[in-house]
């Protein structure tokens, strides 16, 4: 059974070698390899190794800077603004998280924004980073393709702009929220189309504002923001904080990186770290989180509901299982990756 | 026509005098009077002068400290934790905003949390405060009554925990989001019941998870979080940041202040200020916001949609109209306030 499973270390190594072969310096390839493998490990499969081929396409088209000079261009004791110099988003955000953590140690909290960054994988990856230092992490990003109009409108000027927040617990798994500001992520729509299934009402609407159920007609409509105009507002605010504030792309400036491999995306992101020790005793905080988590989990349930989940709990279990047993990649993806490996002249995942 | 309209200054004065008569020191009554009148001015009528009677009930029952020693109990350069000493929430949050602004001037950003605070009115009131100093404001609060269970559960352990964010623009009105993490606020349900109308599907569900449409049966169900499990996660995260982090009430500790006038609520809130000048030139930022706002507003519209609104734009117009023409209060409320004024031995709103 374990033969078809890929171990974390194997996947990390594979991505690292591929990234080196694509031209990234070894230190950078190592960071990207680890973060992309971690995305896969925690079950963020839409943001894991499946992105290797699109990233490679953009690198080969010259749309990514392989030798970025990632530098602080604005700074105060509690904040920094990073110019990512069009490097891989993972590198920019890893650096942003390090700076945020360092600054939060002194100021109690810190905020680091980015401009000229790129797609960096799942939001929770970066929101989780401060947790190891007993800090709460928050992450906001401008998505790399516009999928929704302003409320009542038809021009797609906003993206799924995600929010992630990671809160350390004591004995319980951390509470980790990672959500797009739309009811469904666009990847879910594509998956429904592949399986030939209809979408539930509420995922998308057409240009008349009517429910759009056929995922094959996705081009004729838009994703629905959560809570209607509220999600529209939330997507806009995330874009203002992660994009406009940083001098990064927002609105019509956003480059659809699915259909454009060369234009500089000028992706904006922001990471925030909150040092728990600034607010009081860390152990008591964690005990309070544990108590709250247990209280929610023990709630009486609706008929047919087997278990109350906390945000991030399913991902936590997946991570533990994947660490122990290895990860199962879809056969089609595995095949694509091995073809790609052959092309790069490196060992494939199934042959290692 | 203007005879029935109440001017801002008149309302501010009325609330201030009433609060003084209820036992608040004059300086405190003046702050509360101004903030409650401002809530009314911006159209937050569920959080304006309608709250005077419930506040008075709690004050008379001894549930609010009229001489609070509001003090910083934890501090770092970029943060502070305030003990509100069970004073009026308006006083605690006004102080929190002042500290956040002061600290953000040095650190670029700042965060001030509260414990032992109380209901403070509309979230946007406090998120808006940093804007006068060319700062973005964010506000999070634990609601003062639990109205929703964890996703799939039946025990009401979470509140509508609001989020407000205020972003300054240049020539355009500021972008101000002020939203509960539920599809409808509880006040809207009560309004439907009063008018004898049914609720749209999606506002509430019953204990079997079915849509609940009759607002008179509201006690048999729960508010729906926006985006289903996403809104549940958002409400929980806001509660962790504004409540648990500050050592304030969360989950089963939350006191329903509609049905309990004496138990200390230990309300938790948090204000954040982001200094625009730390990120670069303030005028360019505001110009970028203007540009984005105009782009969204100019979007092609769905059939039947007259106008694309930006978050906070309707409230901005209401504020301007109310400043110019005065405010229209519902006759029933006006009557209640005048009866109350008589009882306090102060001039009523209609007699002044």
Which helices and strands, and how do they pair?
Two copies of one chain form a homodimer.
Chain A: H1 8-21, H2 26-41, H3 52-60, E1 71-76, E2 79-83, H4 89-107, E3 109-117, H5 123-127, E4 135-141, E5 146-148, E6 158-159, E7 163-167, E8 175-179, H6 186-195, E9 204-206, E10 211-212, E11 221-223, H7 229-242, E12 267-275, H8 276-279, H9 282-297, H10 313-325, H11 331-344
Parallel strand pairs in A: 2-3
Antiparallel strand pairs in A: 1-2, 3-12, 4-7, 4-12, 5-6, 7-8, 9-10, 9-11
Helix pairs in contact in A: 1-2
How would you portray this structure in words?
- Two copies of one chain form a homodimer.
- Chain A is built from eleven helices and twelve strands.
- By secondary structure, chain A is an alpha+beta fold.
- In chain A, the strands form three sheets. In chain A, strands 1-2-3-12-4-7-8 form a seven-stranded mixed sheet, sandwiched between helices.
- In chain A, helix 1 runs antiparallel to helix 2.
- The interface between A and B is large, with 83 and 83 residues.
Strand order of the largest sheet of chain A: 1-2-3-12-4-7-8
Evaluate the radius of gyration of chain A.
20 Å
Which class do the helix and strand fractions of chain A yield?
A: alpha+beta
Distance between the termini of chain A: 17 Å
Largest sheet of chain A: 7 strands, mixed
Q: Approximately how much helix is present in the residues of chain A?
A: 25-40%
Task: Write down the CATH class of the domain at 69-182 and 225-278 in chain A.
Answer: Alpha Beta
Low-confidence stretches of chain A: none
Provide mean pLDDT of chain A, rounded: 95
Secondary-structure element sequence of chain A?
HHHEEHEHEEEEEHEEEHEHHHH
By CATH, the superfamily of the domain at 69-182 and 225-278 in chain A comes out as: Malate/L-lactate/L-sulpholactate dehydrogenase, NADPH binding domain
Assembly status:
homodimer
**SS elements, strand count of chain A:** 12
Shape descriptor of chain A reads globular
CATH-defined fold name of the domain at 69-182 and 225-278 in chain A: Ribosomal Protein S8, Chain: A, domain 1
Please report which band the strand proportion of chain A falls in: under 5%, 5-15%, 15-25%, 25-35%, 35-45% or over 45%. 15-25%
Largest interface: A-B, 83 and 83 residues
> How many helices of chain A?
11
């Amino acid at each position: 059974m374990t033969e078809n499973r890929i171990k974390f270390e194997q996947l990390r190594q594979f991505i690292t070698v591929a990234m080196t072969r694509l031209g990234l310096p070894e230190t950078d390839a190592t960071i990207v390899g680890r973060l992309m493998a971690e995305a896969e490990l925690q079950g963020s499969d839409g943001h894991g190794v499946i992105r290797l081929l699109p990233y490679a396409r953009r690198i080969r088209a010259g749309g990514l800077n392989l030798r970025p000079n990632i530098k602080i261009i604005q700074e105060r004791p509690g904040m920094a603004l990073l110019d990512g110099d069009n490097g891989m988003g993972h590198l920019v955000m890893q650096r942003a998280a390090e700076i945020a953590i360092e600054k939060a140690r002194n100021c109690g909290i810190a905020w680091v924004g980015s401009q000229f960054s790129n797609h960096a994988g799942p939001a929770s990856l970066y929101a989780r980073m401060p947790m190891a230092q007993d800090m709460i992490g928050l992450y906001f990003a401008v998505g790399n393709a516009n999928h929704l109009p302003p409320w009542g409108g038809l021009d797609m000027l906003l993206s799924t702009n995600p929010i992630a927040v990671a809160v350390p617990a004591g004995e319980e798994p951390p509470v980790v929220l990672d959500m797009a500001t739309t009811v469904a992520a666009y990847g879910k729509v594509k998956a429904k189309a592949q399986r030939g299934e209809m979408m539930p009402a509420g995922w998308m609407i057409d240009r008349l504002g009517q429910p759009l159920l056929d995922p094959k007609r996705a081009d004729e409509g838009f994703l629905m923001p959560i809570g209607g105009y509220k999600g529209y507002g939330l997507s806009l605010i995330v874009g203002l904080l992660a994009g406009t504030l940083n001098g990064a792309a927002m609105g019509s400036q956003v480059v659809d990186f699915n259909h454009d491999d060369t234009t500089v995306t000028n992706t904006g992101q922001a990471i925030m770290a909150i040092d728990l020790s600034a607010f009081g005793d860390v152990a008591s905080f964690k005990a309070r989180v544990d108590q709250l988590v247990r209280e929610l989990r023990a709630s009486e349930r609706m008929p047919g509901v087997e278990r109350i989940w906390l945000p991030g709990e399913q991902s936590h279990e997946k991570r533990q299982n994947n660490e122990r047993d290895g990860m199962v990649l879809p056969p089609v993806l595995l095949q694509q990756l091995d073809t790609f490996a052959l092309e790069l002249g490196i060992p494939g995942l199934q042959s290692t």
